[in-house]
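Predict structure. Chain length: 210.
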Amino acid sequence: MSKTISKSRLAIILSGLEGFYKPKLRQEQYLTDSEVCASMLWNAYLLKDIEGKVIADFGCGTGILGIGALLLGAKNVLFVESDKKALETAKNNVSKLKSESYSLGKVDFICRDIGRLKIKRDMVIQNPPFGTKVRHTDIFFLEKALETAPVVYSFHKSETKVFLERFAAENNAKITHVWDFRFPLKATFGFHRRQIHRINVSCLRFERIK
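Prediction complete.
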């Protein structure tokens, strides 16, 4: 167990990170809630999927998931993002924590579409676009993640769980754990009428079948 960072402390640290400067609707750039992130990462930590591991954060956005993994003892995190401005924010967030003397593992950044990646990692963490603007984007992310690592933690709309179980089985993988959240989407774009809109989202742990 971590001797320095508790689950509640992790959530507090993550809540202080910089968010998107000009979020892009097509890429569904919503801030991932710090409490949800902390809960998901803590579960992964307890399952021994983080400490000492080499991890990729796909579609990392501002870097909240990968940074949380570093704070919980990841050996190395590769932040992958196709949006240059979002990746700059992720870099700034890492630099901020380093300046505050937090101990972080090795960090790498790459600005690239995940479809062009050919890497191997111990684990992939991701909060992909849910496919509301470009259909099946979340499945594209999941397919690439399963090619990259034997263990994947991925956020999806809860209503798609049955489909995801079938998808996993067809891709030589299985869902081992599911955590459900009421995911808060804060008003981000001009057409939003409510300050916070909550949707049912699940984090699923996928494991490749050997």
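Summary: The chain is about 30% helix and 25% strand.
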